[in-house]
Amino acid sequence: MKRSFFCFFIIVIGFASCSQYEKLRKSGDYQLMYRRAFEYYEAGDFIRSGNLFDDLDRVFSATNKADTLAYFRAMSYFKQKDYLTAAHYFSQHYRDQRQSPFAEECEYLAGYCYYMMSPRPELDQANTDAAIEAFQIFLMRHPESKFAEEADKFLAEMKDKLIDKSYLTARLYYNLGQYKASINALNNSLDDYPETRYREELMYFLLRSSFLLAENSVPARMKERFQSTVDEYYSFIGEFPESKYAKDAQRMYDRADRFLKARPDEEEE
Fold first, then answer.
1. 70: closest CA among 99, 35, 97, 110?
2. Is residue 254 part of a domain?
3. Is residue 42 part of a domain?
4. What is the DSSP string of 16-58?
């Protein structure tokens, strides 16, 4: 019975609180709304603080309160983990109020919001690209910022994610047996990220894709494609002579070489 009464009491208090909050939003007492918005923020009620800051945005847009209000409006959404909305308001703040004491932090946090929205490598990387652009611009403008070290760390992490994405995309085509597409994707990955940590694997799968494409070709295309296999073998083994893939690479080379030697003067149709 006591527990039921306590639950009922909490519900009543909650409804009363909601009623007071809605009355406050409709009151037109903007100074009170402004004070209460910060009280809600300090209490960790970021949904209510954010809503009140939204309500007050135009009211105080041309006053000396606008700068602080805009910052805490963005922070309210940031604290809710609504990173898309927060990124919008942080970006708007540093664009519109460059002289604000909050501008540098807002510019950094806009990039951080995109960083937080960046998905795992196999998914679309639009937010990763946005984070990279934001952090690059931030570091160019604020190389001595207290946020610079973190921005640089997050920038490197996002670049690594794009490398992972490129590698996984190339491997996906290979795994699906789409060897032409795999060759294009592998070459693109190597061109875009020549220093990638996946370079050995990418070159190995480029060799395997070339070999398997030749093996599964119509006779008229086999000579050309086995020649490509030989070329890829020399590129791979020249760069990674001690590779763990060396034996398999040698096997593919031997097969391609035997084919080419057996048909030295064969003309392709």
1. 97
2. yes
3. no
4. HHHHHHHHHHHS--HHHHHHHHHHHHHTT-HHHHHHHHHHHTT
Residue carrying the six token digits 């296999």: 229
- DSSP annotation of 267: P
pLDDT, tens digit, for every residue of 126-173? Answer: 999 999 999 999 999 999 999 999 999 999 999 999 999 999 999 999
Report the domain count for the chain. 1
pTM of the model: 0.82
Of 61, 58, 38, 59, which Cα lies nearest the Cα of 50?
38
pLDDT of residue 266: 55
Please check the confidence at residue 50 and state whether its pLDDT lies above 60.
yes
Query: Nearest Cα to 203, choosing from 257, 72, 211?
Result: 211
What is the C-alpha separation between 236 and 254, in angstroms, rounded? 14
What digits encode the pLDDT tens for the residues 27-44? 888 999 999 999 999 999
DSSP state of 268: P
Q: Which two tokens stand for residue 67?
A: 């700068």
Mean pLDDT on 220-249: 96
| Residue that has been written with the tokens 């910060």 in this structure | 38
CATH of the domain at 214: 1.25.40.10
Helix/strand number for the chain, H first, E second: 12, 0
